[in-house]
Structures are given as C-alpha cells and as structure tokens.
Input
Amino acid sequence: MEKLLEKIDNPNDLKKLNIVEKEELAEEIRKYLLEIVSNNGGHLASNLGVVELTIALHSIFNCPEDKIIWDVGHQSYVHKILTGRREKMKTLRKIGGISGFPKTSESEYDNFDTGHSSTSISVALGMARARDFFNKYNKVIAVIGDGSLTGGMAIEALNDAGSSKTNIIVILNDNEMSISRNVGGIPALLTKIRTKKTYTRSNNCIKRFFNRVPIIGKPIVNLAHIIKRGIKQAVIPNMYFEDIGFTYLGPVDGHNIQELENILYKSQNIEGPILIHVITKKGKGYKIAEENPDKFHGISSFDVETGEVRIKKDKDYSKQFGEKLVKLASKDEKIVAITAAMKDGTGLKEFADKFPKRFFDVGIAEQHAVRINCRNGSIRIKTCICDIFFIFAKRI
Ligand SMILES: Cc1ncc(C[n+]2csc(CCOP(=O)(O)OP(=O)(O)O)c2C)c(N)n1
Output
C-alpha cells in the first residue's frame, strides 16, 4: 500500500485526508523524522512533539496566504515535510542541503529566517499590522514554546499585542521543557493552568458568575472588585493572559488532531489577539527521546535501537570550558556560573551538579543574564567568555 506521506506534496493534499488518515500520517511522519535525524543528526525531540499540531495547523489554515511563524524554527521539520520539501529533508545537515530552520529563500511557506528564540510574536504582530494596513484578511499565527516565552522579547511582544486589539493567534506549545527543564515564574504559571484544567474549562461560567456579584456603594465596589479579582485569580490562573488583552483558549491536548482542529477552527471567529495553550510532549512517540528530551533536543547521528550517538566527540570547546570552570570553582568558591537556558550546550552540566547553589539558569534571557551579574556591590563579572550564552562571574 502506498504510504500516505508520499501523497502529500502540499497542504491541500493534507486537507483531503480524514482524521483517521491524519493520525496514520502522524505516525508515518514520526518514523520519517527518526530515519532522517538518526542518519543526519538534527533537532529531534521538539519536532516529534509538534507532529499533530503542525498537521492541524496546515489543515485549518490556508498557507502560504496565512502566515505561520515558528519561534526559534528548530521545530519546523514537519512543516517543511508538509510543504513540498519531504524529499529534500533527506539532505538535512549535508553540504548544500536543506536548512534546519525556516528560510524565506527556500519556500513561500517560510515567513521569517529564524534561529534565535522569542522573536515570533513580534514578527507576527508586525505582519498582522501590515496586513491591516493593506486591508488584507489573512491569518497570522505565531507558534512559540514555553521556553521561548521566558525570553524578554516575547513578553514585550505579548504586552504590545495584548493591548493592540490586532487579530493574531499565538500558539503556546507547552512541553514543560526548554532544552533542559524550563525555569522561572512563567513555567510555574503554566503549570498552575495545566493542573487546574477543569477550572479553566469552565472559565467562562466562573467569570459570568463573578461578574453577577451585586455591588452596593462606592467603597464596597472597590472592595468587591479586589475580592472578585483575588478569587478569579485563585481559581482561573489563565487570567494573566486575559488581563493583558488576549482571549485564552485551552489547554488542549497537542497530540489530539481532532481537538486541535476544533480549537483552531474556533479561533478563526474570535476578534483580537488570541492565545491557544497546547500541551505537548517533547520526543513524543520515541520512548528514548521522551525520557531524555534534553539529549534529543539537538543530536548528531545516532542508533535508533539504543539512542546512542554514533561518533562521540572526545573534547569540544564547551566540554573544555566546563571542565576548566569546575576546576577553577573547586579552588575558588566565589566563582558562579550563569546560563540562559543552555546548561548542556555550554558544558555547564557538571558545574550545575557539583555546585547547585552557585549555578543560575535564568531562562532564555541573555540580556538579563549579562546585566544581572554586573557590579552591584557584591557581584561583578570577572570573565565573560566570548559566547553570550554563558558567562561566569566571581563574587568580590
Ligand atoms: C536567544 C536564544 N537563546 C538560546 C537559544 C538556544 N535554544 C534553542 S531552542 C531552545 C529551547 C527552546 O525551548 P522551547 O521554546 O520551549 O521549544 P521546545 O524546543 O521545547 O519545543 C534554546 C534555549 C536560542 N535559539 N536563542
């Protein structure tokens, strides 16, 4: 029997499939991703996590007229496979081969050349404003991970988009992981929302109820307002997104194509900025990656049976750096390490394990990471290694 995947040359082919066929297609795509990345190396776990989401997005929206912006872009393999680049994906990480990130020069379905994280909402908002300016009606969708949402630029963009009343859709792909486990207050907020699923489902009923609480007299108005807000905040954590101007939809199971299609379809009829909270699993469908999502975030050629990397590098720059820093820090307790969500990539794992109190992962926030360590009386940057992603500081 001919594989479904071989029949998909563009999103219109995908739209002809029913849900059961799309589910089969998802499994075929997973196998194909594994085949390519285990041979060539690449970003695996994030792509396995967005298979159903990407199928649903290309089923509901009409690309390339509608614009999808992939934050970071490392999770765009499925998008590439579904938009006419299935065969070219075999050239990933080969000289002259396909890019592992969206490239406007590569396809009309790619809208922004990415690599750095936390930019997608800004790009989407700009495109949406341009659309409105030229009286067009296409949809603009930013797909951003919970890790990238910790980046300052993403928060700045949410702030602007929320108050703008512009029609944009932000898909929050929440897998609880950056490259390592996600850190900070925003992931904590998302966890609250996830664990209060039942409450968020009845969000509208609760809101309606509290809005009907009678108000008597001016002082009581204020008091009632504070109490109402307090209770709402306690019961409906997604209020954060609603309060800054977004319509919040979800959370939705990011591996259920039907549910995803329903919510995406619904989003098309809502005015203003929308945030759809999608829950996914990094590495979904390949057990070894599900259990080690950080190792399989970006990986070189590996054995599918064991998950072991084929050629192990003895020493690379990051490893050298990490080892040296551990040596120095063993002799000098004033040395601390700061990373912007790049513990593994910058060779700091051993340091973090050995000196947990002297290790700071500040989330994807390089600007903040640099600034937090400038002289403040007690901490001053002693050395800043050329790569902005990691610095180490010495308390004086
Ligand atoms: C500004 C910046 N800092 C760090 C990185 C390295 N980086 C690439 S992907 C990633 C994690 C992204 O996490 P998330 O947005 O949740 O996506 P996921 O991989 O979990 O789907 C990081 C830190 C980057 N691309 N850009």
